[in-house]
Amino acid sequence: MKSIIQVTALGTALALAGCSALQSDKVDYRSSTVKAPSLMVPPDLTQLSKDTRYTVVDGAVSASGYKPGQTANAKDPVATTALGDVRIERSGNQRWLVVKRPADKLWDPIKDFWQENGFLLAMDQASLGIMETDWAENRAKIPQDMIRSSLGKLFDSLYSTAERDKFRTRLETNAAGETEIFISHRGVSEVYTKERSDQTVWQPRPSDPELEAEFLRRLMVSLGSSPEQAKAVMATAGAAKSVAVAATVDGRPVVQISEGFDRAWRRVGLALDRTGFTVEDRDRKRGIYFVRYVATEAQNTEPGFFSKLFSSSPKPAEASKFQIAVKSQGEATVVSVLDSNGAPDTSASAQRITKVLADDIK
């Protein structure tokens, strides 16, 4: 009897310890493809081609002697805080890292970083400077009730949330030869349809800037800074005022950004990543992003994740190709939408695109 009581007490202690540990870490991702087919939502917005090459790099990138520091310019609307050769910049609710290392030296360590955080890569295109994770579930959001805490991992696979997330990482080389690293979040939620209570659909939910900031902080740690330093740097990178508005010029929908080309180019690229566009190519010298886009009305017709495992899915809506032109106008920048041939586009889709970009950037 005594031994039974001891075992029960030990099990309770372990369950409480597990619960406490989980509460101290609110991010615990597992890719959906580990035990199930890829979550193909929203309708394509899937990527071009999937490159499954992935090699774990032995050893970690180190950076010694990091000291927190901050550089600021009263005329510069972008807040900047540095740790060694890594600094974080922020404009509005957008943040990104700037690293004084070549992009090709950072590619494999960043792939390794995503795998260590529980993700699989669905896109790996070094030529475009873009990698994207598969849809993954944040297991830290699953409630820790008494039954689950007691059974532990034995029946852990039976528990799931109604949310999935994916993250896109984009690397760009700036004029100084530094590498700018952008992390953007996309999320979907599984909800019941209005017509039937036994059917669900996956619907997009807003991007989470705080999740993006958390993974930027973790990436700083992966690149050599201590957790305490990275946390302090993220906290001091205050928001800076930035203005972007949707407007109509000569009958064409545009986004007017009160920033120069370099910053506007960064912000447009990050907004495209956040809002689910597929960037096929980009030409910074010409100021053009080549993208694919699916009208948002089609997103609500996608069947639920689990129904896809047992039935065929309807044909996804056909994606349209556009060019997003970023042009400098003095100290400001104008963003417009062109069709696939490079001609000005005034369609309803072009109006939606400019509104989506303006809403994300401002």
TrEMBL record:
What is the residue range of the signal peptide feature?
A: 1-17
Q: Which InterPro entries match?
A: BamC_C, NlpB/DapX
Classify the source by domain of life: Bacteria
Any Pfam family from its record, for instance, is: Lipoprotein_18
Swiss-Prot/TrEMBL keywords: Signal
The protein's name = Outer membrane protein assembly factor BamC
| Source species of the chain | Rhodoferax lacus
